[in-house]
Specification:
Elements (H helix, E strand, L loop, with lengths): L8 H14 L8 H20 L12 E3 L3 E3 L14
Antiparallel strand pairs: 1-2
């Protein structure tokens, strides 16, 4: 299994959309998602040409910690603290 972390998504998007569009990164344009979408398309084409069958996933929220841990953060929708009187 391969994990690929794109570490310069914002810079790639700035190069593609220019300085005026770079102001929209993070507000309207999700740089990471756009770069991942383009990368997935390239991987899909290369895999087909090589006869490789694969499942390619773009997942939000994962973080690589050092060289040996993958962090899977939880999104908490609601939190309550109960205290006794």
């Amino acid at each position: 299994m391969l994990l690929i972390e794109v570490t310069n998504a914002r810079e790639v998007m700035r190069q593609r959309i220019g300085s005026l569009g770079s102001r929209l990164i993070g507000r309207v344009v999700d740089a990471e998602a756009q770069v991942e979408k383009a990368l997935i398309q390239e991987l899909e084409n290369a895999f087909r040409e090589s006869g490789i069958e694969a499942r390619i996933l773009s997942v939000d929220g994962l973080q690589l910690v050092g060289r040996s841990h993958l962090e899977l953060p939880l999104q908490v929708r609601d939190e309550r603290q109960v205290q006794l009187p």
